[in-house]
Amino acid sequence: DQQVKQNSPSLSVQEGRISILNCDYTNSMFDYFLWYKKYPAEGPTFLISISSIKDKNEDGRFTVFLNKSAKHLSLHIVPSQPGDSAVYFCAARYTGTASKLTFGTGTRLQVTL
Amino acid sequence: EAGVAQSPRYKIIEKRQSVAFWCNPISGHATLYWYQQILGQGPKLLIQFQNNGVVDDSQLPKDRFSAERLKGVDSTLKIQPAKLEDSAVYLCASSLGTLMVDTEAFFGQGTRLTVV
C-alpha cells in the first residue's frame, strides 16, 4: 500500500528553467510534508517542508505547494542549477509521538547545461 | 552541530551470516529511526524509537532483524541470518520528536549492505 506516490521516476530540465516535482498521497491523516534531496552515496538531506495548514512555503529557489483537496503537493525549483541534480523524495507524516515518515519512491532530477 | 553518524559505510557478507550496524544520533534528539532503502525504492521504516522505547516496529522482520537503543542514545540494528533480499542501504535518522513541534528528521550517510 503506497501511501505516498511519486509517479515520475525521472525528470530532465535545462539549467535556468523551472523544475516541478510532483507527489500524491492517499492518507488523509498526514498533516506535515517534507522534501528530501539525495546525492549518490549520501543520506537524504532535508530540503523544505509544509504543514497542512498552509498551501505554500517558500525558501529561496525552492517552493512547495500543497493542495489538500487533491492530496497533491509539488516542489518547484526556480531557477534550476546543475547542482540540483539528485534524487528527490517526498515524505509525509502525521503529528504525534508515534508518527513516522512515509516516503515516496523518488524522482531523479537531472539539470542539463 | 555534528550530524547522525553511522558505521560501517559498507559491508559485504555471505547469506546466512550475521551483521550489525551502529548509529549515533544528533545530541538531544529523542526520536531515532532505522530505514531500509532498496535500490530504486524510497526508504522504508523498519523501527522507530522514542528515547529507548520502541514506538513502531510493524515493518521489522522480527524473525531475523533486531534493534536496540540503549540509554536512549546510540542504536544498533542486527540481521541474523542475512538473506539476499536484505541487500540495501540502511539509513539511521533522528529528530527532536516532541509532540508539539513538527520537525524534520536528519539522516546519516547510511550503511550499504551487500549479501552474496
Features:
heterodimer; A: about 110 residues; mainly beta; six-stranded mixed sheet; five-stranded antiparallel sheet; 11 strands; B: about 120 residues; seven-stranded mixed sheet; four-stranded antiparallel sheet; about 0% helix
Please tell me about this protein's structure.
The complex is a heterodimer of chains A (113) and B (116). Chain A is mostly beta strands. Chain A is 0% helix and 53% strand. Chain A has strands at residues 4-5, 10-14, 19-25, 32-38, 45-51, 56-59, 62-67, 72-77, 86-93, 102-103, 107-112. In chain A, the strands form two sheets. In chain A, strands 2, 4, 5, 9, 10 and 11 form a six-stranded mixed beta sheet that branches. Chain A has a five-stranded antiparallel beta sheet with strand order 1-3-8-7-6, with no helix packed on it. In chain A, a hairpin with an 8-residue loop joins strand 9 and strand 10. The N and C termini of chain A lie far apart (38 Å). Chain B is an all-beta fold and 116 residues long. Chain B has strands at residues 5-7, 10-13, 19-24, 31-37, 44-50, 53-56, 65-68, 75-79, 88-95, 106-107, 111-115. In chain B, strands 2, 4, 5, 6, 9, 10 and 11 form a seven-stranded mixed beta sheet that branches. A four-stranded antiparallel beta sheet of chain B has the order 1-3-8-7, with no helix packed on it. In chain B, strand 5 (44-50) and strand 6 form a beta hairpin. The radius of gyration of chain B is 14 Å and the shape is globular. Chain B starts with a strand and ends with a strand. The model of chain B has no long low-confidence stretch (mean pLDDT 91). Classes of the chains: A mainly beta (113), B mainly beta (116). The interface between A and B is medium-sized, with 26 and 27 residues.
β-sheet strand percentage of chain B: over 45%
Strand count of chain B = 11
What is the end-to-end distance of chain B? 37 Å
- Largest sheet report of chain B: 7 strands, mixed
Overall shape of chain B: globular
Q: Tell me the radius of gyration of chain B.
A: 14 Å
Supply the helix-strand structural class of chain A.
mainly beta
Structure annotation, total helices of chain A = 0
> What is the H-and-E element order of chain A?
EEEEEEEEEEE
The beta-strand count of chain A equals 11
Report low-confidence residues of chain A grouped into runs of 5 or more: none
Major sheet summary line of chain A: 6 strands, mixed
Structural class of the secondary elements of chain B?
A: mainly beta
Distinct helical segment count of chain B: 0
